[in-house]
Amino acid sequence: MTTNALRIVRSLGIAVETREYAWSDDDLSAASAAAKLGLDPDRVFKTIAVRGSSTGPFLCVVPGSAEVDLKKAAKASGDKSVEPLPLRELEPLTGYVRGGCSPVGVKRAIPVLIDETASLWETVSVSAGARGLQMILSPSDLARAAGAEFADLA
Which helix (H) or strand (E) holds 125? Predict the structure, then answer.
């Protein structure tokens, strides 16, 4: 399967591995994906869409075992406050559905912040833009493909 996220990563000449797994509407969590893929949940990152009080929407990419700390996300983005983006706004904004939101290839260019713990790993896993499809690549390549910065988010 090829997605927009994978097309972008490959067009940049980035080495990427893809892995598919059986997903369920009952559990779209990164922890579930990690278990099905046999990966450490700290290495499987999930993409959470939020809205800053002054900057507007942006994406936070955090370990599957953690939650976005909204106060840290606000500090990292320069906002006074940050709130989760309502689910109904996710697909129109990103082009992706819940459980398949990649930080790469977002429909509308919005900022992307990756939790700094990603740099502890040689490679990390993130959604490749479809449910049940992960891409594994280096944190620096992920940041380059997503136009992202690293920050303390969890």
Answer: strand 124-130
Q: For residue 12, what is the domain's CATH number?
A: 3.90.960.10
Other C-beta atoms closer than 10 Å to the C-beta of 7 total 13
Range of the domain at 108: 4-151
Strands 133-137 and 124-130: antiparallel
Whole-number CA gyration radius for the chain: 14
pTM for the full predicted model: 0.96
Query: What pLDDT, in 10s, does the model give residues 83-130?
Result: 999 999 999 999 999 999 999 999 999 999 999 999 999 999 999 999
Query: Minimal CA–CA distance to 103: which of 147, 133, 138, 43?
Result: 147
Look at the chain and report how many structural domains it folds into.
1
